[in-house]
Amino acid sequence: MDSPSAIPDDPNLYKFEYLCLDGGKNNYDVACLAGAPECDEGESGRPVRWFSSLRVFDPPMWSPIRPDRCVYTEDPADVLGQIAAQIQTKFEQLPVVAGTSGIQPNPHTLKGAETNFYAEAAEQTFTVDMLGQSVAIVAKPVQFQWDYGDGASLGPTTLMGGPLPEDRWGEKTRTSHVYTETGDFQVVLTTYFQGTYSVNNGPDLPIPEQGQFSSPPQTVSVWRSITRNYADDCIDNPQGQGCPGVPSVP
Questions:
Q1: What is residue 31's predicted lDDT score, i.e. its pLDDT?
Q2: Which one of 66, 76, 146, 210 is CB 3.0 to 4.6 Å from 192, fit for a cystine?
Q3: Helix (H, G, I), strand (E, B) or coil at 161
């Protein structure tokens, strides 16, 4: 069974360099700046060029990532490190829509029958301000867990499940569940989202751990079915037990 975990390591390393520096941290080549990005959306904006290299290369073989971009701070290297340290907490605080659980049949199902559950969740994008930088965060659903309300659960699993046509309701699926008691049960779907982030349109960087977001409880009413045999033929005896309009014997 799948289990929640950190996303796979990014195969790349990243770094950036200031553009148009001329012999010092604050000395810029004016002619070079004419062709660089205009970093005027915040204070202390500086043009930078990002580079990437596969981790397997030692020493790294850096390749530029175009186009060039901006960083807004007195010390870009420091602010990017601070964002990296805070991004997990920020990710978990986002108003991510957890998704919903489809249930078939719904809102009533039968004791002893297969009830089909499936997840409906979508990728979501957020833009937030962190330390004066524009940070884009993408949350992608990757794992799911159902708590069926009767003490049983499924997941975390990469299985989303899916809806069945009505004539196939009651079939066993990889995400279905059988209730052994009658009553009302509160079903909760928890969706695990994998996150990436980019600073000022820089390269997409992985967020270390998955974020967990749970849907509000959904009520499933489990009924029992009763089968009775009647000797009367409703054509010959319309008033017989089990015929339309005649109450059944409890």
A1: 78
A2: 210
A3: coil
